[in-house]
Design brief:
heterodimer, A: alpha+beta, six-stranded mixed β-barrel, 10 strands, B: 233 residues, alpha/beta, six-stranded mixed sheet, four-stranded antiparallel sheet, globular
């Protein structure tokens, strides 16, 4: 009852100077809008990334060189390492292995078009492990591998860049670093999810790449960038990881605790993603907090002006029997109303902005849905109310502390 | 027989103006009979405003005791003084001092809100507005009212909590002579009907002439205390 009366009076007072109230709210509107937009885009992006990581397959283990800088003696991962891991006698929990060796900035040309791209060298089981499907033709086989055949598999995007079409290209020739390669397969489109186009790829057999394309001197022969292993089941991933570690430790003669390789499972990718998103959220939250702070100072400033302007009114209210507390509550209600309304408008603005970002992302082929969570809405509302109360305290207590005689005499 | 609504004993008020102490009130003794009509006169600087502020519990004396309606108020803290003002004193100001954004009814309700009355505020406010002859204007804002009507709203606001005294500071000062006379008639009629003690601070001898008793202040002391023989007009 008392609260609603106070609220009505606060609204009356705020609407009596709409432009000023609106401008004062703007700081909070922008702050809260930023928080909501960032949180919802962030949540949407996290969901999308987690989704695409999950679609990689739950039973994969990626082995790369060590990321630990304290390890000084490093032996590179090789094709032989991959074969050892792939041996069912050594590692019963592992179904298959493949290697990945990437050559960047390679000139690829066909029918007069030239593109510079990353060429990926793999071993035959790579398509099974990564669930690649062929739209046309076949994947690299053991025959190609052993014969160092000059054959290539193109992604749909790559094919369209070079030939303007992805149909009927089997048997055509592409030139990689000037050398002719016969197209034996077109990879089925995987869709444009994620940040890099997974259809802009070109696969060649590992052996061919090493003997014909690699120009890196002084490197161990049969060096690879990554070994991909698939465990027999998703629940066998921890066992499989342990087996890989044992095999590589023996093969690389590593000292205890100084592994020169790193294992990544889907679990690791997910936790890495959430870590990155967490840091990002804190960073963006910090920016939002600063704009809320600025908004709060704006409110304090206007409330101080308002207290000065209404000194006589305060004096009158005191003469009529208002206690300190009554005046305090009156002005706090005003500043809180101001900031909560700003917060509500900000939530609407932020949600609209997030929706727009989602639309733009969808239009550019990276479909993701921004999530405006009820938790972020509640948080924003509470936070803006708190800002209003906090920055309202000083002006309100100044109003409450006015001497009635002085205040009534104020011109 | 004597029923004192106001008892002031040796009231002093000293202000510090830089290095010098200024005695705004230098020992005032004053007793006011309940239901009396008292005019306080005096030139500016005589301590008139200071006395009014102390009687109205807006300010505390430096020394001396003050009993208002049987309560010692000279020692009370701020919030208790606010409560006394709310319950026992009705103010009528020269410049009306209404809240411009609120209707007449809302203005009159204000003291009831501060006394914590939750139910029936509106009814009580409108009852008092009828008493001062504003039944037609209850939902108007001050801007839409004439000066005389605004002062009637202010009088209704002063009366709404059934105070012991009404303290009117130059109540006709901002009005033309006709509305001024009407306001004065209204105040005196209310005094006669309800028995509320009426204290009018004024420069105007014509206004003071309507009072039953007149005191004249000079240099912080009561210089003259005059009771008219006639019954309170």
């Amino acid at each position: 009852m008392f609260l609603t009366q106070n609220l009505l009076e606060a609204l009356e007072s705020l609407t009596s100077n709409k432009l000023r109230s609106g401008l004062t709210m703007l700081g909070i509107v922008i702050g809260v809008g930023a928080v909501i937009a960032m949180l919802s885009v962030g949540q949407g992006a996290t969901a999308t990334i987690s989704g695409s990581i999950s679609s990689i397959g739950t039973n994969l283990i990626f082995v790369i060189g060590s990321t630990n800088e304290e390890v000084t003696i490093r032996r590179p991962l090789t094709l032989e390492d991959a074969s050892a891991i792939g041996d069912p006698l050594n590692a019963p929990s592992i179904l298959a292995t493949s290697v990945l060796y990437q050559l960047s900035r390679i000139k690829v040309s066909a029918s007069g078009e030239t593109v510079t791209m990353v060429v990926t060298a793999v071993t035959p089981s790579y398509d099974e492990i990564r669930n690649l499907e062929m739209a046309d033709g076949e994947f690299i086989s053991d025959v190609h591998m052993n014969g160092r055949a000059s054959v290539a598999i193109l992604g749909v995007t790559t094919a369209e860049k070079l030939f303007g079409t992805s149909e009927g290209l089997i048997g055509e020739t592409v030139r990689i670093q000037g050398q002719p390669f016969r197209i034996i397969g077109i990879q089925a489109s995987k869709g444009g999810s994620g940040f890099s186009d997974s259809d802009d790829v070109l696969y060649v057999p590992y052996t061919t790449a090493v003997s014909r394309l690699a120009q890196r001197s002084g490197e161990a022969p049969n060096r690879v960038d990554m070994i991909v292993a698939s465990a027999v089941t998703a629940s066998a991933v921890p066992d499989a990881s342990e087996e890989i570690k044992q095999i590589l430790r023996v093969r690389h003669h590593t000292e205890v605790g100084k592994d020169d390789f790193t294992l990544m499972t889907q679990e690791d990718f997910l936790s890495l993603t959430s870590q990155i998103m967490g840091v990002l959220t804190i960073f963006l939250g910090g920016i939002a907090a600063i704009s809320l702070l600025v908004g709060g100072i704006g409110i304090m400033n206007i409330m101080l002006v308002s207290v000065t302007e209404r000194t006589r009114e305060i004096g009158l209210r005191k003469a009529l029997g208002a206690r300190r507390r009554d005046i305090l509550i009156q002005f706090l209600t005003e500043s809180a109303t101001l900031s909560v309304f700003g917060g509500l408008i900000g939530i609407a603005l932020g949600a609209g902005l997030a929706f727009l970002v989602g639309q733009i992302a969808t239009a550019t082929g990276n479909a993701f849905t921004p999530v405006v969570g009820i938790d972020s809405v509640l948080l924003a509302t509470l936070f803006s109310a708190a800002v209003g109360l906090f920055f309202g305290i000083y002006p309100a207590s100044r109003a409450a502390g006015l001497e009635p005689v002085e205040a009534l005499r104020y011109e | 027989m004597n029923d004192w609504v106001i008892e002031l004993e040796d009231i002093r008020k000293t202000y510090r103006m830089g290095e010098v102490d200024v005695n705004a009130l230098a020992g005032v003794d004053l007793r006011v009979q309940r239901s009396d009509v008292l005019a306080i006169m005096g030139p500016s600087g005589s301590g008139k405003s200071t006395l009014m502020n102390i009687i109205g519990c807006l300010d505390r004396p430096t020394s001396g005791t003050y009993h208002l309606d049987g309560k010692t108020v000279s020692e009370l803290k701020d919030d208790s003084l606010a409560e006394i003002r709310n319950r026992k004193v009705g103010f009528v100001f020269q410049s009306f001092n209404l809240l411009g954004r609120s209707t007449a009814t809302a203005n009159v309700e204000l003291p009831l809100r501060y006394s914590g009355m939750n139910r029936g505020r509106r009814e009580r406010a409108q009852e008092v507005l009828r008493l001062v002859g504003l039944e037609e204007r209850m939902m108007h804002r001050p801007m839409e009212l004439s000066g005389g009507q605004q002062q009637r709203v202010a009088i209704a606001r002063a009366l709404v909590n059934k105070p012991a005294i009404i303290l009117a500071d130059e109540p006709t000062g901002n009005l033309d002579s006709r509305s001024g006379a009407e306001i004065l008639d209204l105040l005196i009629k209310l005094n006669r009907d309800s028995g509320v003690t009426l204290i009018i601070v004024t420069h105007d001898p014509g206004v003071a002439a309507r009072a039953h008793r007149t005191i004249r202040l000079k240099d912080g002391c009561i210089e003259e205390d005059y009771v008219s023989d006639a019954k309170p007009a």
